[in-house]
Amino acid sequence: MHITPLNPKDEGHQARKRFGQNFLHDQRVIEKIVRSVNPKQGETVVEIGPGLAALTAPLISEVEHLTVVELDRDLAKGLPSRVPYPERLTIVEADALKYDFSQLVNENKPLRIVGNLPYNISTPLLFHLLTFGNAIQDMHFMLQKEVVERITAEPNSKEYGRLSVMIQYYCQATYLFEVPAGVFNPPPKVTSAVFRLVPYKDKPIIAKNEQKLAQLVAHVFTQRRKTLRNSLKNMLNDGAFERTGIDEMARPETLTLAEFVALADEMV
Asked: Above pLDDT 90, what percent of the chain?
């Protein structure tokens, strides 16, 4: 695989702050991301935010067809001239935060989604994508390292929180590798990382009410210094801690996903 890295200055496109644009231009990092995705012929591959086609070009060389979702009209217009095999490319000009990704499922082939996500919309976009979990095989994204560490964190770590619990309820989350700021133009002020999400076809743990689970997890982590007894006062049925076997004096970062689900199932 050979990738010609793109220089946004040569392309005449200025990165736009309102779209959170930072363009990837390092060939070794691009190759590493594409190897991690490992796209195959016949798969339905979707890229979010193709930008100047740094990932689009090598991806489209590996598959029969590639769909990209791009909000910036100027970038969308220039994409066909930046990739080999432009006849394989479908461009959807849309806001990924509002787009119905189920439209892209073709012949019952699940989606493989990839992207260097705008950091300013990353969390709501991930939760939006999870609503289409049944239609998605896997997702490979780059985000700021701090957020990726929170998504993939285990209990009893300082990174473990709402994002860890809720993403891991829906997906298997894997930290893949770090990406330094210097591989972008303009360089962001943070280090990035690439990670993989694989939505569960059959969740290993199922809450009776997923909205209540989300409510409980958000609530306890806004008060993470409080014990569960204090932060969940008047939110649980009487005897909930005894029935679940969870220590009421514990703090939220010590609980496993299964324990959060057990407490959510006891909510009033």
From this structure: 81
